[in-house]
Amino acid sequence: MGEPWNKQRVSPVKNFFAGGVGGVCLILAGHPLDTIKVRLQIQPKAAPSQAVLYSGTIDCFRKTVAREGLRGLYKGMGAPLAGVTPMTAISFFGFGLGKRLQQREPTDTLTYPQVFAAGMLAGFLTTFIMAPGERIKCLLQVQTHSGIRKYSGPVDCATQLYKEMGVRGVYKGTVLTLMRDVPTSGVYFMSYEWLKNILTPEGQSVSELSVPRILFAGGMAGLFNWAVALPVDVLKSNFQTAPEGKYSGFRDVLRELIREEGLGSLYKGFSAVMLRAFPANAACFLGFEITMKFLNWLAPNA
């Protein structure tokens, strides 16, 4: 095990810019499987005499491409791409700030529970950008099922939601987004830093960690994150895409899903989520680390 990751001076500002780059990498690598995940999560239960719309991840991929071409896999990407740069920038800024606030000296070593707390702060700060972006993204991803093209794109979707229901309509699902992102961001950052630390060879600094090891640590952090997040994410997707008035809150969604489809319904889209989580988050952390190295070279004392 090499020199601890947390001996380095924490710069929330550098984290902000590097996190934005990492977020763009995450979306470009992971959006196609995110589209599949959402469509699997919200597909209706089939009648006894009918087959389900999608039998699994591969079937959803094949049918989406057959009907809509490869562009269908990138539906709704505009909203998260526009929101993900500031969102991940704020997430990594919040993580850096959370670490800095717990340090008496710039090079103090933090415990893993302290790293977890810093990650939860990151999740809290990002929710207010994440919630409307997720709402718009999910509506665009699933409108194909209805056969009616209600929204022409992210801006049109946001405009219509605001006209119909005001700010409340745009921010529908915020509580569920908080429930998902606050604890899972703690898991996300803590697992990444833990893996990065144990993967660093003896006598080396984590700043010298090889690209394959950064990719592995980032990918595994994504898997840990989504293993915790998926049940709440299923509730959020169903709540955000349901017709207005169908559910009074997330408890209604939970009761209906369990009553109609059992506990397994909370893990809808599991394979698509996990297939997306590893490459997307590996790309995110690699983009973050490369940008941080550049910023540390450019402004070593900042």
What would a concise description of this structure say?
With 302 residues, this protein is mainly alpha-helical. The chain contains ten helices and no strands. The N terminus is likely disordered.
Description:
This protein is 72% helix and 0% strand. With 302 residues, it is mainly α. Helix 1 (12-42) packs antiparallel against helix 10 (270-298), helix 7 (174-199) runs antiparallel to helix 8 and helix 8 packs across helix 10. The two termini are 28 Å apart. Mean pLDDT is 87; it is low at 2-6.
Question: Secondary-structure blueprint of this entry?
Answer:
Elements: H1 12-42, H2 57-68, H3 78-101, H4 112-146, H5 154-165, H6 167-170, H7 174-199, H8 211-241, H9 250-261, H10 270-298
- Morphology: globular
**Termini separation (Å)?**
28 Å
**Number of helical stretches of at least 4 residues:** 10
Radius of gyration, CA atoms, in whole angstroms: 20 Å
Counting DSSP E segments of at least 2 residues, the number of strands comes to 0
Give, in order, the helices and strands: HHHHHHHHHH
Strand content: under 5%
Helix content: over 70%
Structural class: mainly alpha
The low-confidence runs, each spanning 5 or more residues with pLDDT under 50, are 2-6
What does the largest sheet look like? none
Q: What is the average per-residue confidence, as pLDDT, rounded to a whole number?
A: 87
Offer a few descriptive terms.
302 residues, mainly alpha, 72% helix, globular
